Amino acid sequence: MSVVPQASESVALRFPTGFVWGAATASYQIEGATTLDGRVDSIWDEFCRRPGAVANGDSGEPGADHYRRYAEDVDLMSSLGIGAYRFSIAWPRLKDLSFYDRLVDSLLEKGIAPWATLYHWDLPQSLEEAGGWTNRVTAYRFAEYASTVVGRLGDRVAGWLTLNEPWCAAFLGYGNGVHAPGVRDSRAAVAAAHHLLLGHGLAMSEIRAGAPDVPAGITLNLFPVRPATGSEADADAARRIDGLQNRIFLNPVLRGEYDADLLDDLAPYGLQEVIQDTDLKAINQPIDLLGVNYYRAYLVSAGDPVDGPSEWPGSSDVRFLQSGHPKTEMDWEVQPEGLTELLVSLSREYPGLPLYVTENGAAYPDTFTEDGEIRDAERIAFLDGHLRAAHSAVEQGADLRGYFCWTLLDNLEWAWGYEKRFGLVHVDFDTQKRTPKDSARWYSGVIEHNGLPAAED
Q1: Contacting residues for 333 by C-beta, under 8 A, at least 6 apart
Q2: Are 66 and 102 in contact (CB under 8 A)?
Q3: What is the pLDDT of residues 339-395, one digit of tens each?
Q4: Is 165 a catalytic residue?
Q5: How many CA atoms lie within 13 A of 324 on its CB side?
Q6: How far apart are CA 202 and CA 383, in angstroms?
Q7: Number of Cα atoms under 13 Å in the Cβ half of residue 452
Q8: Distances (CA, A) of 206 to 118, 142, 144, 214, 422
Q9: Tens digits of per-residue pLDDT, 234-253?
Q10: Residues 6 or more apart whose Cβ sits within 8 Å of residue 38
Q11: Could you tell me which residues are beta bridge partners of residue 409?
Q12: DSSP code of 60?
């Protein structure tokens, strides 16, 4: 496979005119500077202090030192031709948002559209000590925070996203405890999921008030869920996981309701107890776009119950199976066809809703050649396959408007620490030197030509 398309004539698969080509990051993963300019502790700062919670005892320091080196990083994006940058605002920096003023202005000076995510998991620790997302008051505090941020940046941001992957925040943070705040309680996870949705709806109202002409929505991590066999037991396992992973967020946001089967599944975990009369109306605010984070599909079967907390309450008897695809360093199977399936399904189930792939990427071990380059052919193959899958979805009628590669820079990959590298750009965390990988140059070529060359035989 060539590193970049060499000429426009070689581009066989063109994306729609105006297609948004971007890269994405998250505040806690790259900013560093966790004690500067009035920033307060987040749940991730506290979580990283717990022995064994994060690989190698890693934390948000140093990150990729993006707080200090943002200008260099914006120049790097510009050199690659990246047209949009999806970043997240750190709620713990609410006392001083001047960094984001500087970042947004620098992006605009380079012709890069700023896309801002209000919440990428870094809840202020003080709010967690009052119950965090298990306390519905946090949803109202989130709306106040959103109002302040939109009031400050709303005239310059090209796209707003309220939440990133509320499934992870709820079920990994409060369910099995592998993410901050490290709570292991299924009832807490269900309450957190609902209150995150409420926070989304309330924040959408603030965005509409402060930036009425700017497209806004939410980002969800969505997975096609397939039963391993045609048995009733496997079909029911797939139904439950689809409900707990996908429909629990999609249908309150887009239809103003929880599906009846999901309410039944989660009755033992208190979902109906936390829903108040006007909540679903508040959650069901019209959105302009849906951000889709895609990494793989699920193949599930019924199985023997297991002990320990589950990411999916009431589904500890579901088995997740391998389907034989190659795997990334995260042990995730590479399944680009699932992206086509997902995008087409969303466009059919929720017609008229513009879609953006707001995260897609892969971790692979990176090694330098003798001449100081990183030949990450596996990452290029991953991105190439998924972009072809995205193009296939467009051909089948999916209203896909853009693609944000995860991620621009190597970073703190949450509980995996700095060991897992998703970046288009290698970061030496000791020296903070940036080195674009072959995948960065390959992606730059795709952006330049708004498409892909013909597939090699």
Answers
A1: 296, 297, 322, 323, 324, 325, 326, 327
A2: no
A3: 999 999 999 999 999 999 999 999 999 989 999 999 999 999 999 999 999 999 999
A4: yes
A5: 1
A6: 35
A7: 19
A8: 12, 10, 8, 12, 33
A9: 999 999 999 999 999 999 99
A10: 93, 95, 96
A11: 425
A12: T
Q: Token match 């870094």: residue?
A: 122
**One-letter amino acid identity for 368?**
F
200 known ligand binder: no
pLDDT bucket at 10, cuts 50 / 70 / 90: confident
CB 115 within 8 A of CB 159: yes
Amino acid at site 130:
A
Tell me, what DSSP letter sits at residue 257?
-
Determine which one of 31, 206, 311, 359 is catalytic.
359
Amino acid at 300: V
Tens-digit pLDDT profile for residues 249-259 = 999 999 999 99
Mean pLDDT rounded to a whole number for the chain: 96
Say whether 295 counts as a known binding-site residue.
yes
Is residue 359 annotated as part of the catalytic site, yes or no?
yes
Question: Is there a binding annotation on residue 406?
Answer: yes
Active-site hit among 165, 311, 333, 341: 165
| Residue 29 annotated in ligand binding | yes
* Residue 246 confidence (pLDDT): 98
pTM for this structure? Answer: 0.97
Beta-sheet strands, E only, within 181-307: 216-221, 225-227, 289-293, 298-302
pLDDT of residue 304: 79
Q: What confidence tier does 308 reach under pLDDT thresholds 50, 70, 90?
A: low
Q: Which residue has the tokens 């890269």?
A: 23
Q: Is 414 marked within a binding site?
A: yes
For each of the domains in the chain, give its residue range(s) and CATH number, in order of start.
Answer: 8-453 (3.20.20.80)
Q: In this structure, what token pair is assigned to residue 3?
A: 């590193």
Residues in the chain, overall count: 457
Q: Alpha-carbon distance 160 to 200, whole Å? A: 11
H-state helical runs in 21-89: 27-30, 43-48, 66-80
What's the number of CA atoms in the CB half-sphere (13 Å) around residue 240?
A: 22
